[in-house]
Amino acid sequence: VNDRILRAARRQPVDVTPVWIMRQAGRYLPEYRAVREKIDFLPLCKTPDLAAEVTVQPVRRLGVDAAIIFSDILIPTEAMGMELELGDRGPHFPSPLRTAADIEKLTVPDPMERTGFVAEAIRKTRAALHDSVPVIGFAGAPFTLAAYMVEGGGSKSFILIKRLLFEQPKLAHALFDRLTRTLIPYLEMQVEAGARIVQIFDSWGGELSPRDFETFSLPYLTRMVRALQAKGVPVIVFGTAMSTHLPLLRKTGADVLGCDWRIELDQARALAGPDVALQGNLDPLALFLPAADVEHRVADILRRAGPVGHIFNLGHGILPPTSPDAAKHLVETVHRLGCHVTAPPTP
Amino acid sequence: VNDRILRAARRQPVDVTPVWIMRQAGRYLPEYRAVREKIDFLPLCKTPDLAAEVTVQPVRRLGVDAAIIFSDILIPTEAMGMELELGDRGPHFPSPLRTAADIEKLTVPDPMERTGFVAEAIRKTRAALHDSVPVIGFAGAPFTLAAYMVEGGGSKSFILIKRLLFEQPKLAHALFDRLTRTLIPYLEMQVEAGARIVQIFDSWGGELSPRDFETFSLPYLTRMVRALQAKGVPVIVFGTAMSTHLPLLRKTGADVLGCDWRIELDQARALAGPDVALQGNLDPLALFLPAADVEHRVADILRRAGPVGHIFNLGHGILPPTSPDAAKHLVETVHRLGCHVTAPPTP
Predict the structure, then answer these.
(1) B225, B212, B201, B213: which is closest to B148 by C-alpha?
(2) Which of the residues A217, A259, A262 would you substitute to probe the B interface, choosing the one with the greatest number of B C-beta atoms within 10 Å?
(3) Residues B42 and B84 sit within 8 Å (Cβ to Cβ)
(4) Among B206, B261, B316, beta carbon nearest to A262
(5) Cα dihedral sign for A160, A165, A167, A168?
(6) Distance (Å, rounded) from C-alpha A57 to C-alpha A29?
(7) Strand, coil or helix: what is A104?
(8) Rounded to two decimals, what is the model's pTM?
(9) What is the three-class DSSP state of A197?
């Protein structure tokens, strides 16, 4: 059984640096697109057989060291009572949160009752893989989910969610608390179904200044991290454009901090301190470089990360036009060079 | 004559911390919207009388320490031969750069011949203000302009421009070189018309990893900074999500580095080193906070920046729903507290 990712998350020695890829079950894979021709994104998330099938696809093709369950961070918001539309063009809430009454109406759902299909997909994935690699469970961070729910979808300036923080901070905290009380049992359910490590995506946390991140995101991340660690699994916290928040993120007590490609991992290590693992951080677009250049960049990342406490990944999700062969070459390169590199090869 | 911004840019003592606001001539001002009811964005940029009028508006209303000329970073791309559409929903190039031949067709225009209206607007602004405050000239950075020209507008993942960098680096460098040879004379023209300080916007530079930023943006920024400094004006370089690039940005030799709100200015100072001024960095959304909280945040920024080498600004452009009174209160607060603050007031 391959437990490299669990060992690396706990800063234990590994034979080879573990690697997985954010959005590894996705549109860049022809076998995923074949499934998607038959079913839309949200129904796919809710059909355990098919969700397990696409979850397993990249493990088979790429040889990654973990399977991240195919789902979406916004699934729990629907369970709370939000109408949700998901598609390749991004999420959309036709009735975004606009008033205190809208927020008051949100329920704290029973996770098995409303989102049991995620647990079922995890069980089916484990069976299909014969537990050969760990399954990663995941959820969004309360701030990030609230940003989507208030803005109604993605945003450029995050005017509405930030106005909520700045003009009605008590109401914002009430929303974050309700989300936290939803997300902890939701992740606990995933662990009970067999997820052996979880990642929390604070995708928009980097939009906040350090002081606002500390006030409006950090306390809820910390609650989630502690609750999941109490269930015996290591926790990864990831966001983009959050390099300057690394010293704060460390305070969550997370086992692993995910880094986007905007920072070198040795610089990230200096900010995050010695007692946490790091995940990352190749620019997803670097998979369009010639193979030799990819190898050089992988070696450089491995060298900067050091041999202990590093989970290799892209700095963000893999993009649809990426070649599956480039992804496979990346995984092979990490496995070939990881834990053996002390200096980058000559370019 | 108020030369605070020039003195602060050169790290000379000032009586009061200077302040201006990115997009201070914009839709949040009713007098700007009144002008825009009569004329579209791009024609407004090309009509010196009206461009000067909206440039002067925030100086009169807010009492800021500089007037930034009303224009757009994409103006020079049209002069190079690109068809350009500008509007409140963002820029659009109907025929983006897609081939080597597209790039080869771009001209290096004579700035007075093709963009003389910018110089004329600067002269009219100076006359209207009787040179009471300095005029700021500006341009985009080559990487940022290329990103717009290749993507055809804004982008989420910058797939096309990054594929150009990674798959055809020589062609990318040829494009950046041509842009640099356009932008230096374009800024020199602005200085000759009376701009006394210039800002270079590398709005998308933060999308690049440090190594790619160093390869594909830094050399061209450095050429621009040196050329403009040779004309006797201080140079500000600004981008968002670029905190981790501050040690690299320092290598441009820029007089001032602009910071977004994602980093505290004392942390920025540690990364940028002692011999450069800093500009920033209040979150534009913080103008929706109660007045007392804004004052507390201003005091905190001033304290972290220190009394020398600081130009106060927002960390990004002011947003349309902002109250003009909140902007005025910000300027007054900086003028009241700047250079006198050693510790933040009790919140």
Answers:
(1) B201
(2) A262
(3) yes
(4) B206
(5) positive
(6) 8
(7) helix
(8) 0.95
(9) strand
Give yes or no for residue A342 having a pLDDT over 60.
no
Q: Which amino acid is at A259?
A: C
Annotate A241-282 with DSSP letters as a single string: S-GGGHHHHHTTT-SEEE--TTS-HHHHHHHH-SSSEEEEEE
Query: Minimal CA–CA distance to B198: which of B187, B184, B212?
Result: B187
Q: Which of B243, B284, B300 sits opposite A244 (nearest CB)?
A: B243
Q: Is A261 on the interface with B (CB under 8 A)?
A: yes
Q: Taken in order A259, A261, A264, A267, is the CA torsion positive or negative?
A: negative
Nearest Cα to Cα of residue B68 among B139, B149, B2: B139
Residue of A244, A261, A319 with shortest CB distance to B209: A261
Least-confidence region, from A83-97, A154-168, A330-344: A330-344
Rg (C-alpha) for chain A, rounded Å, is 19
Residue A321 touches chain B, beta carbons under 8 Å: yes
Residue type, B316: H
B23 is catalytic: yes
User: If you measure CA to CA, which chain A residue comes closest to B165?
Assistant: A289
Closest residue of chain A to B320, computed from CA coordinates: A159
Joined together, the tokens standing for residue A62 give: 């790429």
Q: Torsions phi, psi of B257, nearest 5? A: -110, 125
Contact A212 B284 (CB under 8 A): no
Order of strands across the sheet with B277-282? B67-68, B135-140, B195-201, B235-238, B256-258, B277-282, B310-314
Rg (CA), chain B: 19
Instruction: Please state, in angstroms and rounded to a whole number, the distance separating the CA atoms of residues B17 and B311.
Output: 6
Region B296-319: what's the mean pLDDT? 97
Distance from CA of A184 to the nearest CA of B (A): 28
DSSP state of B278: E
Tens of pLDDT, residues B119-171: 999 999 999 999 999 999 999 999 999 999 999 998 989 999 999 999 999 99
Q: Residue A90 has what pLDDT? A: 85
Q: Annotated catalytic, B250?
A: no
Q: Amino acid identity, residue A344?
A: P
Structure tokens given for B106: 């771009």
Nearest to A286 by CA among A218, A253, A333: A333
Q: What are phi and psi of A153, to 5 degrees?
A: 165, -155
**Nearest-angstrom CA–CA distance, A45 and A71:** 5
Cis ω on the peptide bond leading into residue A2 (within 30° of 0)?
Answer: no
Helix intervals (H) in chain A: 4-9, 30-36, 41-45, 48-62, 75-79, 100-104, 111-129, 142-151, 159-167, 169-192, 210-216, 218-230, 246-250, 265-272, 291-305, 324-337
What is B83-132 written as a DSSP string? --B--TT--B-SS---SHHHHHT-----HHHHHHHHHHHHHHHHHHHTTS
Per-residue pLDDT of A291-335, as tens digits, reads 999 999 999 999 999 989 999 999 999 999 999 999 999 999 999
How far is it, in rounded angstroms, from Cα B8 to Cα B324?
Answer: 25
Most distant CA pair in chain B, distance: 61
- Kindly report the average pLDDT of chain B as a whole number: 96
A168 and chain B in contact, CB less than 8 A? no
| Facing B243 at nearest CB: one of A243, A297, A319 | A243
Q: How far is B118 from chain A (nearest CA, A)?
A: 28
DSSP-assigned states of every residue in B305-343: H-SSSEEEEESSPPPTTS-HHHHHHHHHHHHHHTTT-SS
